[in-house]
Amino acid sequence: MRDNFIFKCTICGEENYLGSKNKKNHPDRMEIKKFCSRCNKMTIHKEKK
Ligand SMILES: [Zn+2]
């Protein structure tokens, strides 16, 4: 079963990216480096429930 989730900027809290994942394959919270338009730079984005 795939769940949709949101990647949220850890600096400003902006919810920049939507994603989906298989919980069985990726049970842990994901962290990715993405460009944040509010911070205007690459920041760490964390999965938000
Ligand atoms: Zn940001």
Walk me through the structure.
The chain is elongated. The relative contact order is 0.38. With 49 residues, the chain is an all-beta fold. It has no helices and four strands. It has one domain: Rubrerythrin, domain 2, CATH 2.20.28.120.
Sum this structure up briefly:
This protein has 49 residues and is mostly beta strands. The protein has no helices and four strands. It has one domain (2-48): Single Sheet (Rubrerythrin, domain 2), CATH 2.20.28.120.
* Radius of gyration (Å): 11 Å
Overall pLDDT score: 89
CATH superfamily: Ribosomal protein L33
Number of helices: 0
The third-level CATH topology is: Rubrerythrin, domain 2
Order of helices and strands: EEEE
Keywords:
mainly beta; Rubrerythrin, domain 2; 4-stranded antiparallel β-sheet; binds zinc ion
Set out the fold topology.
Elements: E1 2-9, E2 15-22, E3 31-36, E4 41-48
Antiparallel strand pairs: 1-2, 1-4, 3-4
